[in-house]
Design brief:
429 residues; Cytochrome p450; 13 strands; heme binding; iron ion binding; metal-binding; Cyt_P450_B; iron
């Protein structure tokens, strides 16, 4: 039964074991900012009382302290990213003849992960990304020009969503005429990503719809690859076809998988980072005003947004052997969730973690993971935010979030972002 617990003078909802008073982490159902605030109090309880905890309902282990989370996400020999397809959609995709999907970087361990990552990483070098900076600025300006005279916008739909979608489309080499198609795929992938934890049956209409979307993307990128083989261009897809490491090239299937992964991961990460940054600045007006006067502080502010409101709440791994963390032994083949959002608030690592400090130093948050599985798209997300956010603060005076209605969050398992974020500002020509 849903119960309430009194923590620091507040009534907090949670699932409670009546005998032992253990908090059950149903954090995939966050839907309001208040839920997020409460979740950090849950994290603190778990860090202090049950830093490594087994959830009988989900049959998974949960890790909450910074050092333990760091171990889980970096020690690939004991905590593996290679997992069997467990979701209905995963299983159907593996057996769908229309779809050409290869290896997913997020589900590989070294040495295969290292070889595959080395093949795709040239697309994310500083030199490669520097070619995008001018376009990111131009796209940001186009989006701002469309709303400045109105004095208001829905930030997610009008800015945070289209910016990364257009940038990734241009990176890959998708023509302007196909952007609506690309945006529809991004919509479908995002909707799939934020599905509730309950799994549908294989025959469910949602699964079939997603299979059709993956088939459509697979066919589209397959045709693009064939065209790039005949007529290479100055885009990432042509570079992926040309790159070679120790005589090895990316297969067609692997290239298609990478493009789809980039569309989902690169799009969702930047979308949520931008909207969460606006929320943090709104709730900390002194920081926003300081950033307007000292835009050179924006890189540090972005890192603090990532720590303070991690867009990715948790990462999943599977134990390759029995593993002991602290005084708890996790058995082999167990599912483990490393709670990045909890690690980023661990008082053992961060002084006054509940304080939003744009000059925090050091700030070794784990929001992009760490080690061999450090998010390959992190430099792109940082670049997009680093260019767009100063432009927003400079060109939209008196920027505020409309608070007439409760803010809705994406109700996804392991991610944090806004469905909508209405804002107002001083209109200008």
């Amino acid at each position: 039964m849903r119960k309430m617990v009194l923590i620091e003078g507040e009534l907090l909802p949670h699932f409670c074991d009546a005998q032992f008073g253990k908090v059950s982490f149903m954090l995939d159902k966050l839907s309001t900012i208040q839920d997020v605030e409460h979740s950090y109090k849950y994290y603190q309880i778990m860090r202090d009382t049950q830093p490594v905890w087994y959830d009988e309902q989900t049959r998974s282990w949960n890790v909450f302290r910074y050092q333990d989370v760091y171990t889980v996400v970096t020690d690939y020999q004991r905590f593996s990213s290679q997992m069997k397809a467990s979701r209905s959609l995963d299983r159907v995709l593996e057996n769908e003849s229309r779809i050409k999907l290869g290896k997913a970087l997020t589900r590989l361990d070294p040495p295969m992960h290292r070889r595959y990552r080395n093949l795709v990483s040239p697309a994310f070098t500083p030199r490669a990304l520097s070619r995008l900076s001018g376009r990111i600025e131009a796209i940001s300006q186009e989006l701002l020009d469309q709303v400045r005279a109105a004095g208001k916008m829905e930030f997610v739909a009008d800015f945070a969503y289209p910016l990364p979608t257009i940038v990734i489309a241009e990176m890959i080499g998708v023509p302007t005429s196909d952007r609506p198609l690309f945006r529809r795929w991004a919509d479908e992938l995002l909707n799939s990503q934020i599905q509730r934890a309950e799994e549908p049956h294989d025959g469910d209409s949602n699964v079939r719809r997603m299979v059709d979307v993956f088939a459509e993307m697979s066919e589209y990128f397959d045709h693009m690859l064939e065209e790039r083989r005949r007529h290479p261009r100055n885009d990432m897809m042509s570079e992926l076809l040309a790159v070679e490491l120790d005589g090895e090239r990316l297969s067609t299937e692997d290239t298609i998988s990478f493009c789809i992964t980039l569309l989902l991961a690169g799009h969702v990460t930047t979308l949520n980072l931008l909207s969460l940054a606006i929320y943090c600045f709104h709730t900390h007006p002194d920081a926003m005003e300081r950033l307007r006067k000292q835009p050179e502080l924006m890189p540090g502010a972005i890192e603090e947004v990532l720590r303070y409101m991690s867009p990715v709440r948790a990462l999943r791994r599977v134990t390759a052997a029995d593993v002991t963390l602290g005084d708890v032994t996790i058995p082999k083949n167990a599912q483990v969730f490393a709670w990045l959002a909890s690690a980023n608030y661990d008082e053992r690592q961060f002084a006054e973690p509940e304080r939003f400090d744009i000059t925090r130093e050091p700030n070794k948050h784990l929001s992009f993971g760490h080690g061999v599985h450090f998010c390959i798209g992190a430099p792109l997300a940082r670049m997009e935010a680093g260019i767009a956010l100063p432009m927003i603060l400079q060109q939209l005076p008196e920027l505020r979030i409309e608070t007439d209605q409760p803010l809705e969050l994406l109700e996804g398992s392991g991610i944090l972002g806004f469905k909508r974020l209405p804002v107002t500002f001083t209109a200008s020509a």
